[in-house]
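User: Reviewer 2 asked us to show a designed sequence for the structure in our supplementary figure. I'm pasting the structure tokens here. Could you produce the per-position amino acids so we can include them in the response letter?
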């Protein structure tokens, strides 16, 4: 069976290579000047990544002319699809008035007002250029406010390109004094908090681990973190760069748990380059330059007119509360259908997640934390290549993030494609990975 799995993967790779000569040529050209041919590791996969030529609505077209239903939604940033007219109009209007002012712009305060009205945590907010930057600033804010230096994070979490706590560890993480807890494990985490309470500046957590596998946080665990932060004087920081789409007020509103600080990014800038951090007024007022003891926070493009205008238009015209509720429910129904299909095939597969975010896992065991995940890079690659062949674009690691343009026809077609994949390869999913599978990039 192991050899059958390797044969199946080899055949899928051969089909992929034969079908995508222009993407292969584009990749070979790109590696001349970019490490591995890219500036974003998540978009690389072997034997080479597809190069996209354009997109419209929820569909992408690659340089070889193949059209895909885009289920990835740019890792949650592409909530509004690839060419939404409302976003385009807002950007065009902003461009007509010029850009790069080096000054306040009219869009800045409007977007801040909308964000503070939507998210319970936000008394005051500041803008950045990415979710990574937002999390960096949130942690810097916590250490400056508390006068402490230790940050509690969780194994398997990703908070940006220099805040990664999965396996293997990376050498470019920022040098805070991190202690790493176990997600959804109050016992282990509580012991860490007790040990470091005197110097604990912040507890940084995603209400649902996103990039690490779409693993929801146990509400009781997240409430435990809120309580322990209060007891120790640390700041509870919710990374809602991804999960803010779950409701009008993000996951914090669904949970009824308000953090001291939160971070945003992705779709909240209309899909443009954007990030934000904010929270309690007494904490965020340290950045008020009217104060004699203020802390400066600069950034040439923090308030760039494109992101400010696109973010405001998206939140006010495209993603009102009722739309966020419908998107959440659509994702819940889709994930339930996918899991039912897996059970019908008696396959070693499951989909985890909440709302419009989900990830496939090729294992039958329950998953409540990243430590429960079984490495299955060969199964994931086979699934990814097969779904591409069937006309669906998603992450190599099996992540899906629905855009507003994904409707019933696309969900039905995806379920049919998943059923077809299991009909073809289902028996192989219980096959152990080859001994050298760990060398396969995921």
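Assistant: Here is a per-position design you can include in the supplement:
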């Amino acid at each position: 069976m192991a050899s059958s799995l390797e044969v199946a993967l080899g055949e899928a790779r051969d089909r992929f290579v034969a079908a995508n000569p222009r993407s292969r040529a584009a990749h070979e050209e790109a590696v001349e000047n970019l490490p591995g041919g890219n500036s974003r590791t998540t978009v690389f996969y072997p034997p080479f990544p597809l190069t996209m030529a354009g997109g419209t609505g929820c569909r992408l077209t690659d340089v070889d002319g193949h059209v895909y239903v885009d289920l990835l939604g740019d890792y949650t940033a592409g909530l509004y699809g690839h060419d939404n007219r409302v976003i385009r109009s807002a950007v065009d209007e902003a461009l007509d008035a010029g850009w790069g002012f080096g000054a306040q712009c009219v869009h800045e305060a409007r977007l801040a007002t909308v964000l503070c009205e939507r998210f319970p945590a936000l008394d005051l907010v500041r803008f950045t250029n990415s979710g990574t930057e937002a999390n960096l600033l949130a942690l810097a804010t916590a250490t400056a406010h508390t006068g402490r230096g230790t940050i509690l994070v969780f194994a398997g979490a990703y908070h940006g390109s220099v805040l990664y706590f999965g396996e293997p560890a990376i050498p470019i993480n920022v040098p805070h004094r991190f202690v790493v807890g176990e997600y959804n494990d109050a016992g282990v985490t509580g012991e860490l908090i007790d040990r470091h309470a005197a110097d604990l500046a912040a507890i940084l957590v995603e209400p649902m681990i996103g990039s690490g596998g779409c693993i929801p946080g146990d509400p009781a665990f997240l409430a435990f973190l809120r309580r322990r932060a209060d007891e120790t004087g640390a700041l509870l920081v919710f990374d809602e760069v991804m999960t803010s789409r779950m409701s009008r007020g993000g996951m914090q509103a669904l949970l009824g748990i308000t953090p001291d600080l939160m971070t945003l990014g992705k779709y909240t800038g209309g899909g443009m380059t954007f990030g934000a951090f904010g929270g309690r007024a007494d904490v965020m007022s340290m950045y008020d330059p009217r104060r004699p003891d203020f802390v400066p926070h600069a950034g040439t493009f923090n308030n760039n007119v494109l992101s400010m205008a696109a973010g405001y238009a998206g939140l006010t015209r495209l993603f009102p509360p009722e739309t966020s509720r419908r998107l959440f429910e659509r994702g819940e129904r889709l994930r339930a259908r996918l899991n039912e299909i897996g059970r019908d095939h008696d396959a070693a597969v499951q989909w985890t997640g909440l709302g419009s975010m989900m990830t496939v896992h090729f294992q039958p065991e329950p998953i409540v934390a990243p430590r429960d995940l079984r490495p299955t890079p060969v199964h994931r690659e086979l699934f990814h290549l097969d779904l591409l062949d069937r006309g669906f674009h998603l992450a190599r690691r099996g992540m899906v993030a629905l855009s507003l343009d994904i409707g019933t026809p696309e969900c039905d077609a995806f379920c049919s494609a998943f059923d077809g994949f299991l009909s073809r390869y289902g028996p192989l999913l219980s096959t152990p990975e080859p001994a050298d599978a760990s060398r396969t990039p995921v």
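For the response letter, you might also mention the following. Residues 9 and 87 are 40 Å apart (CA to CA). Residues 438-442 have pLDDT under 50 and may be disordered.
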